């Protein structure tokens, strides 16, 4: 109540407003009052009461005019409130004028006002023009549908009003429709509140807001006829939540339609609304179209099966909803089945339709889950990969056995975190409790289980459940499970049956299996003749596998198909490091199964040789070096041989030679089995050998984790329980480990799962090495059925025929096109096979597998859109004319022949060349300097054109043991060879795992004419041998050194004539300068050893640039690297050209330097030959050496070892400064070297090899003939000169021998004098041994020495020294010597 003293009359209000003494923010008018008065409610607010008399009403209009004209109120007035005003048109106009002048007014409130039609129209016009009012409240003002329509019309253009509230008025559906049309246009209105007598008002308004994606807060209330006011709908944009409290069915359908493309609602709550299938049908479209809805609550909406089916159908396409509540509805098990279908999988290859739904709740007393619903729940929990929350509320239809099965299905579920079963009557009893505890033991990912209001909670057993949940949430101490895991002997061994087609491998496997079997077929041998036609008609495709259980040992026999198209598979299946396996090479004694033409020994050798090389090459590639591969040979069809023959004897001798040849590479079983593969009785000894060898190998191979043997049985049981499925996905393998293998189990959800995952992968890889599974980490699955995989899958892939596909270009195809090809081939090639393959694997899986197994290759590794090369579809190109794209006298022709260093035992495996085709292409096109390079492929050929250089890379040899690189170039020789050395050859070498390739120079004429490979076999020389040959000649002969080529003919028809090429034409400038630098370095070291001082000579170059001061700079072997290195190379060449004008001048300097060294060397050699001449007056030669004969080739012995046999002693011609090897010298044979001989000869041998090394380095005559005895001369020389021998203890001993000459020249004491006396003693001992040995050989007279060694004892006429010289020197030097017979 306001005190009377505070009341003022209206005149005071008028005068006060005019005087602008008050800073008014708010003015409230109250009409229909008993008396007129006014008062200040607060400092800034004024209340004005106006009575109903005429004068007071005039004062009301006057007040509106004064307020509008007052300057101060135009800026300060914020709020106007009118109560019980009956608006007339003039008064409204005054209000209109006031609002136009007072732009600061934000809020206008009308309570219990009355508007006539003209007034509403004026009010609408006022609202349309106003740009300042933000909020209008109309409460009980009776505007009706007309007023609502006019207001809506005004708000279509008004851009300032943000809030509109219409309370306790009946605007009706028509007025609501007008408001909805306004909402479709107006974008500034932020809040709309309507309290109407009918809930139908809400439908058009909320529908318009949702359809137009308006961020408008909506509150619609209803209340009439004494009813309690209740909310109908509520939408709050801040939290994107739409809550519908009360709507009829048609209204609900309209709202659902508006939600289809809405993007503002994230949460929809329709709890308690009665919904039917008609609404659910509309809502299905919402779920299919809407992409922002995250949470849906349809609890207690009375939905039945049909309605839930519609909702579930929408979930198939929905990718946004994360939470769905359907508890308290009336659907049955059919509804549950449909509801869970989108989040379930029914096949290993099927993708889950909906992966965004994370939480689902259903149930209730009226929900009858039943048997169908239970089955759907179990399927979902077993296969779902996204659901984290599941709630089943107040269920009364499931029993305790049903809930036990639900918990049991959680064994392999790693995604569910929360499970709520509150109020479910079936959650009771010991069975459910025990199952829960068991599941929590193997499933640590469940964080909470809500058992509120269940009988289990009532009984007090839930405390233990919650305690276990708490334990699963704690961090467990780390433990290295594999470190302490026990090891054991493996129990499975693989036997690989290798051989050409029709060898009888499959029949031998079957007979061996029958022999192992306890139940024999009594009449098997009587029906042998029936097998023969079948054997001829049916050949093994892919790889067939037979398994034998022998007590605790398992032997699996792998029958490798002998057809050439399957050879690529053999590399893939080769046993890895440490695998228990051995090989049986099967060869038929007959050429064809149906005839009686026997194979000769050469054909048998060819059969066996391929497989022996295959085994050796792959064992080196697999790193299998700790144990040699075990090989057994079986000859089949022995029953057709009626009597022994010379051919059979020759075959036995051939196999014996192969055994000796491959000694040290394979462990060859000495017995060759000759069998009738069709008769189990004939293979008895072989079966016994199989069993015995398997046991032996299992004891010799590394031990494996005991867990592996357990897992083998677990995987076998899993296949039995899963309809013999051949493939186990990696996730399923993890689930299996979690359930069945405690040591590979994640024990807490906070465990380091990546470490457990690593242990599982280690075990899976071990099983792969053992041959129990096929597992590659990149593929994501394990192959459990080898025969299915090798036969039905790989057997069809290797025969893939994609040549007709128009999209394939140069062997390359897109990934998607390859998937289509695989689907077509595997489904149409063999009826029934395709469907079985694609039940377990997808086409994309097959492509990944082909990439891993190198059956195809990525052009751009790591790029998912990369083209793929399929080697099997490349053509061989036979019949195409072979010629260069360019020709002319200016063209340079260069060739390099890369051959397996040990081609007699190894070759390049079938997968090598396809890898090279892809890798080389990537190298060429990955270079920035490609300049329009072209690249094309054939089956065994790569052709490249780059920067004017045309290159052919050919795979050659019957077994692929060499690569030829040919080039025709418009560039010079050096540039062309740089492309070889920096790009092509390094790429080839990088792919030869375990196989060493030696580089040879091809004859240029062969390259120019593209001579067929069969004629090029003798037309190459090793690069190192040519370099060594240049190093072995005197300096003045190096520049003009030439290599001679032998002629080639075919059946008397000449193919290639004999010819020669200069070494400087065969080698690049870089290679030739390398030879000169090596020669300089050798001479430098020799000068140091021989104590020859340097002398300054202006005419010679005593230091070559880059030999010592400049480090060896490597250029990146790509065209980018070549481009970057051009400037640096040119600078280095300029330095060389400045100091050495040309190669001839450089060689001239070397010649002078070399001449001085030769003089010094021969002086010291002569001293060694002639020192201590008193010993038996030189009755025997001094300089001797030993040769070992191996396969008709002589090899110089460089080291003496006790027990050596088949040695032959030879003597050198000792003529001064021309010491050399005597040709056709018989020598003396030594049966065996004993310890005494070793003791006497080793010091001498070291000194002799030192002398030989020096001579070889400078081309002295003492080296003549030695190169023929040392096949790898460069290696021997490098070993002696560049290793520690020259500077270490042994080197000191050798150097001391040379110090003798220095002592002879100077008597001054030098370091090493004691060593020198030791050297003299060593030489005396060796010479005395030689004298005694020759006496034992009855070779002590001059005649005997002439006969065996071709040496005569002479005396030099000038010095009187004794020497032993050859016949040639006896004639040409007769005037210098005199013969002195012994």
TrEMBL record:
Keywords: Coiled coil, Repeat. InterPro entries: COR-B, LRR_dom_sf, P-loop_NTPase. The keyword Repeat applies. Pfam families: COR-B, Roc. Residues 896-1049 form the C-terminal of Roc COR-B domain. PANTHER family: PROTEIN TORNADO 1. This is C-terminal of Roc COR-B domain-containing protein. It comes from Kingdonia uniflora.
């Amino acid at each position: 109540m306001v005190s009377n003293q505070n009341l003022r009359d209206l005149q005071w209000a008028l005068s006060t407003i005019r005087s602008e003494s008050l800073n008014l923010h708010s003015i409230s008018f109250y009409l229909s009052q008993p008396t007129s008065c006014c008062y200040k409610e607060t400092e800034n607010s004024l209340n004005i009461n106006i009575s109903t008399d005429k004068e007071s009403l005039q004062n009301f209009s006057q007040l509106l005019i004064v307020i509008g004209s007052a300057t101060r109120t135009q800026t300060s007035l914020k709020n106007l409130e009118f109560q019980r005003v009956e608006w007339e048109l003039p008064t409204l106009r005054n209000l209109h004028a006031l609002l136009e002048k007072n732009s600061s007014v934000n809020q206008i409130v009308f309570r219990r006002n009355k508007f006539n039609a003209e007034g509403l129209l004026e009010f609408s016009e006022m609202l349309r023009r106003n740009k300042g009012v933000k909020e209008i409240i109309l409460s009980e003002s009776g505007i009706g549908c007309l007023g609502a329509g006019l207001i809506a019309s005004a708000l279509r253009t008004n851009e300032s009003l943000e809030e509109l509230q219409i309370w306790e008025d009946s605007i009706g559906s028509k007025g609501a429709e007008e408001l909805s049309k306004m909402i479709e246009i107006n974008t500034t209105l932020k809040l709309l509140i309507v309290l109407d007598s009918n809930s139908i008002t809400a439908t058009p308004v909320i529908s318009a807001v949702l359809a137009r994606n308006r961020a408008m807060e909506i509150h619609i209330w209803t209340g009439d006829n004494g009813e309690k006011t209740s909310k109908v709908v509520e939408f709050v944009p801040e939290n994107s939540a739409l809550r519908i409290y009360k709507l009829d069915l048609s209204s609900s359908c309209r709202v659902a339609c508006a939600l289809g493309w809405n993007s503002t609602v994230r949460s929809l709550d329709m709890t308690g609304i009665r919904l039917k299938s008609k609404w659910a049908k509309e809502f299905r479209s919402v779920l299919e179209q809407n992409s922002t809805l995250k949470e849906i609550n349809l609890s207690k909406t009375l939905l039945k099966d049909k309605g839930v089916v519609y909702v579930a159908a929408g979930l198939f396409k929905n990718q946004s909803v994360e939470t769905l509540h359907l508890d308290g509805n009336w659907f049955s098990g059919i509804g549950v089945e449909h509801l869970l279908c989108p989040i379930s999988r029914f096949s290993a290859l099927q993708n889950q339709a909906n992966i965004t739904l994370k939480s689902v709740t259903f149930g209730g007393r009226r929900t009858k889950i039943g048997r169908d619903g239970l089955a759907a729940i179990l399927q979902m929990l077993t296969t779902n990969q996204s659901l984290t929350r599941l709630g089943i509320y107040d269920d009364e239809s499931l029993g305790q056995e049903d809930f036990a099965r639900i918990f049991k299905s959680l064994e392999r579920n790693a995604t569910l975190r929360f499970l709520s079963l509150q109020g479910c009557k079936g959650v009771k009893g010991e069975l459910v409790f025990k199952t829960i505890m068991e599941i929590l033991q193997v499933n640590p990912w469940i964080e909470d289980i809500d058992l509120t209001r269940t009988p289990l909670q009532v009984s007090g057993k839930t405390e233990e459940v919650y305690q276990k949940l708490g334990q699963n949430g704690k961090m467990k101490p780390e433990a290295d499970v594999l470190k302490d895991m026990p090891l054991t002997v493996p129990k499975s061994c693989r036997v690989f049956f290798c051989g050409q087609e029709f060898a009888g491998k499959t029949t031998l496997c079957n007979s061996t299996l029958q022999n192992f079997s306890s139940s024999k077929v009594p009449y098997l041998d009587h029906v042998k003749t029936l097998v023969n036609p079948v054997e001829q008609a049916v050949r093994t495709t892919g790889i067939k596998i037979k398994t034998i259980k022998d007590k605790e040992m398992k032997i699996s026999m792998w029958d490798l198909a002998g057809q050439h198209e399957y050879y690529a598979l053999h590399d893939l299946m080769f046993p890895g490091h440490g695998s228990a396996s051995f090989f049986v090479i099967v060869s038929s004694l007959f050429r064809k199964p149906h005839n009686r033409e026997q194979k000769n020994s050469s054909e048998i050798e060819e059969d066996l040789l391929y497989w022996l090389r295959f085994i050796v090459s792959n064992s080196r590639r697999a790193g299998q070096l700790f144990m040699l591969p075990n090989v057994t040979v079986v000859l089949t069809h022995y029953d057709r041989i009626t009597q022994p023959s010379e051919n059979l004897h020759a075959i036995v001798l051939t196999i014996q030679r192969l055994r000796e040849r491959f000694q040290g590479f394979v462990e060859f079983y000495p017995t060759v089995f000759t069998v009738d593969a069709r008769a189990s009785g004939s293979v008895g000894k072989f079966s016994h050998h199989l069993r015995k060898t398997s046991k032996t190998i299992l004891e010799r191979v590394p031990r494996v984790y005991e867990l592996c043997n357990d897992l083998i049985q677990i995987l076998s049981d899993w296949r039995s329980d899963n309809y013999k499925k051949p493939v186990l996905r990696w996730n399923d393998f993890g689930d299996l480990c979690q359930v069945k293998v405690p040591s590979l189990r994640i024990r807490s959800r906070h465990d380091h799962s990546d470490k457990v995952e690593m242990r599982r992968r280690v075990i899976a890889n071990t099983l792969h090495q053992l041959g129990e599974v096929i597992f590659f980490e990149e593929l994501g699955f394990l192959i459990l059925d080898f025969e299915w995989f090798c036969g039905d899958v790989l057997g069809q892939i290797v025969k893939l025929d994609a040549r007709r596909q128009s999209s394939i270009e140069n062997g390359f195809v897109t990934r998607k096109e390859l998937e289509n090809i695989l689907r077509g081939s595997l489904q149409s090639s063999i009826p029934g096979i395709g469907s079985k393959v694609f039940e377990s694997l997808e086409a994309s899986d097959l492509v990944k597998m082909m990439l891993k197994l190198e059956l195809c290759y990525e052009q751009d590794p790591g790029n998912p859109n990369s083209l793929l090369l399929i080697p099997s579809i490349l053509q061989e190109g036979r019949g195409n004319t072979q010629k260069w794209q360019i020709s002319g006298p200016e063209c340079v022709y260069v060739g390099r022949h890369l051959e397996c260093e040990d081609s007699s035992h190894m070759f390049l495996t079938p997968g090598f060349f396809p890898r090279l085709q892809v890798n080389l292409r990537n190298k060429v096109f990955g270079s920035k300097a490609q300049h329009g390079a072209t690249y094309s492929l054939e089956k065994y050929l790569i052709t490249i054109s780059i920067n004017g250089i045309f290159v052919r890379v050919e795979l050659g040899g019957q077994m692929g043991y060499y690569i030829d690189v040919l080039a025709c170039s418009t560039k010079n020789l050096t540039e062309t060879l740089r492309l070889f050395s920096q790009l092509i050859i390094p790429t080839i070498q990088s792919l030869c795992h375990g196989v060493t390739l030696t580089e040879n120079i091809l004859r240029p004429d062969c390259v120019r004419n593209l001579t067929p490979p069969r004629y090029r076999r003798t037309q190459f020389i090793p690069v190192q041998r040519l370099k060594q040959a240049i190093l072995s000649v005197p300096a003045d002969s190096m520049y003009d050194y030439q290599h001679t080529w032998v002629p080639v003919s075919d059946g008397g028809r000449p193919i290639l004539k004999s010819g020669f090429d200069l070494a400087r034409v065969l080698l690049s400038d870089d290679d030739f300068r390398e030879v000169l630098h090596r020669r300089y370095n050798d001479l430098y070291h020799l000068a140091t050893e021989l104590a020859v001082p340097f002398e300054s000579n202006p005419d010679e170059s005593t230091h070559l640039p880059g030999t010592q001061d400049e480090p060896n700079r490597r250029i990146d072997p790509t065209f980018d690297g070549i481009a970057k290195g051009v400037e640096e190379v040119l600078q280095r060449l300029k330095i060389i050209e400045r100091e050495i004008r040309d190669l001839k001048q450089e060689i001239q300097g070397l010649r002078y330097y070399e001449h001085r060294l030769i003089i010094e060397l021969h002086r010291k050699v002569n001293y060694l030959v002639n020192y201590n001449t008193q010993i038996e007056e030189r009755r025997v030669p001094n300089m001797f050496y030993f040769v070992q004969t191996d396969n008709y080739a002589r090899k110089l012995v460089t080291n003496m070892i006790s027990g050596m046999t088949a040695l032959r002693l030879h003597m050198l011609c000792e003529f001064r400064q021309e010491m050399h090897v005597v040709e056709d010298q018989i020598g003396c044979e030594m049966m065996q070297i004993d310890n005494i001989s070793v003791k006497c000869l080793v010091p001498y041998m070291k000194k002799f090899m030192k002398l030989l090394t020096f001579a070889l380095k400078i081309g002295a005559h003492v080296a003549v003939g030695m190169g023929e005895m040392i096949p790898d001369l460069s290696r021997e020389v490098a070993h002696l000169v560049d290793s520690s021998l020259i500077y270490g203890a042994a080197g000191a001993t050798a150097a001391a021998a040379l110090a003798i000459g220095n002592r002879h020249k100077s008597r001054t004491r030098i370091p090493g004098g004691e060593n020198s006396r030791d050297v003299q003693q060593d030489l005396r001992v060796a010479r005395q041994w030689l004298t005694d040995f020759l006496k034992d050989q009855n070779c002590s007279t001059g005649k005997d020495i002439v006969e065996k060694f071709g040496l005569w004892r002479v005396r030099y006429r000038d010095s009187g020294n004794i020497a032993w010289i050859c016949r040639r020197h006896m004639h040409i030097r007769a005037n210098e010597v005199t013969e002195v017979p012994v």
